Amino acid sequence: MTERQLQPLLHELVGVVLAPTSALGDAAGQIRPTGVQGVFHADARVLSRAELRVDDREPESLARGSVGPHAVRFVGLTRWLGDPGPDPTVRVERLRRVSPGGLTEEIQVVSTASVPVRAVVSVELACDLAPIEVVKSGGATEALEAKTGEPGELVWAAAGITVTVTGDGATTETGHGAATPRLTWPVELPPRGRVELSWRLDVDDPRAVVVCPPGEPAWSRPDLHADDRRLVRLIDRSLDDLRGLRLAEAGAPEDVFLGAGVPWFLTLFGRDSLWAARMMLPLGTDLAGGTLRVLARRQGARVDPATGEAPGKILHELRRHEFAPGDGLHLPPAYYGTVDATMLWVNLLHDAWCWGLPAEQIEPLLPQLEAALHWVGEHADADGDGLVEYIDTTGRGLANQGWKDSGDAVRFRDGTLAAPPIVLAEVQGYAHEAAVNGARLLDAFGRPGGDRWREHAAGLARRFRAAFWVDGPYGPQPALALDRDKRPVDSLTSNIGHLLGTGLLNGEEEAQVARLLGTDALAGAFGLRTMSTDDAGFSPLSYHCGSVWAHDTAIVLGNLARAGFRDTALTLADGLLGAAEAFDYRLPELYGGDDRSLLGRPVPYPAACRPQAWAAAGAVLLLQAATGLYPDVPGGTVRLAPLAGAQLGAVAAEHLTVAGAPVDVAVDRAGRPTITGLPAGLTVTVDATPTIPTPRRSAPTDHPVGG
């Protein structure tokens, strides 16, 4: 039997990140030469081994914990050292911190023994400079030969990358004298003494296409108080993770965007970077502005089937070289194989404008707006039927080009795969929203074409209504997609939740979609399942056919909350917060879609990225839904429609941002909001406080609002 080459598992590894550098090791702090463990920099594994030994033995793992946004501390025991007896008296602490272009480790040997302690501390090292796609596919790699440099220095070099490890005060061993290169320190501690050792990793990578941006994040960090402490902890951890995922292009460090996720996607991804920036708008518009400009500079200008480029189209992903992880996939360094990023770019531009992105940042992007709308109306509709479709004509690109981009993501109710070209439901919603939003921007800035795009949106809504609605087990439902024969792909999926708020559906249709989203078949897990349990293609650990994606759940619960469908939004919010608690508040890319009763906690998806930008940014979208803050700065209005109240509890968020001004929003347990700090000229409207049923969880009685 041929042995399968499998993607390595991630779920038990401990990660730390300051993009484009990240480190993944085991729970004991070791980085072992196996799987996806290693230190990565801009799509290359720059260190494949870093194993700590004391007297050639591994410390016994005891504990670990995060130390700020870019560091983690590991604690181990060396029970063969120190005083005899049951209590350990010598421990080893290992602080791993990622820095721009490298990594440092501080090692402390701490003794509470009554006798002196003598030992030899060593760190065994290796570097293979494996491309990320080779690691992702489970491919084997060989360690490179290490050279010695200055005292305490080891150097590896290949493919234009130079990796240097320096151990302060250490001796180096390489070649025949050591099985693997290593740094060595003999240590001697007096009774109750300690010693501190350190080593650092530096990467010189002039060909990297992404870099660590200078300075601190431009977004605000809200001071949050909530009855449900899970929300506070989730926001705190998510903002730390998002700080570590910031990136810039090598030639434009001032325009910051978010890399998609560790380890596979720590680069520019059109869809992911756009959604994450959109979710982050309550904390300011700078991230949105940077993301829009970066992608505008790479907007398609010509038709190129090999890369998927077309005039006006927005990029899918950017790499230093071809990305070929296996299964016939060969993506060029700049790849445009996405059907939705162009509409999402338009919608981010509009929403950032609504949150107060200044006109002087909007106006330079208007030509790119017009080009993007032209792509939606022309190139995105290859067969001229008025709907947006996709097909990979090369056989080397992504077969599916929506956010559910795995090869088996588009299935009929009976489990059979749909044949391309594919017309996705949510993409029609994005296109409708982009046409309406684009028309509003064109009107506001004195550009022609607004009426054309409003007519385009109206026609799209009519065609969608005629083609997509089917009978399902819970009544009428929008199909997931249309296949090449324009047959509705009749499975029930989370995609329909993305239609809410796009204007594609009327009020009655939105209410039916909300009912479908609230069924146990979709909402019975810790969040929203990507496919219902009634469909033959459902599997709780399928990447896109039954798992739960944190960003998907956040987007849909945000849409439900904004549209006034509180009960289903609250169900999804509670599931997402339960998942956050189970994952130590670092939400993974996705997790299992098992019923909540199975284990009382979500089952990990073993290859999920963590941290992931749009999973972490989903926490900010949840906070926005809780406070109900919906500004329209150019329209002069701010709507308050909070999800918080008796069921979710009271919430108070200070230092949200509207039109560049710090804004505080508080919602009491009855759901009554107050807002302070709004710039002059904005009129506040408050939705009527809903009648709230008996809470699912009793609120604390010690403080009306706590931290």
TrEMBL record:
Residues 20-200 form the Putative glycogen debranching enzyme N-terminal domain. It comes from the Bacteria. This is Amylo-alpha-1,6-glucosidase. Residues 338-580 form the Mannosylglycerate hydrolase MGH1-like glycoside hydrolase domain.
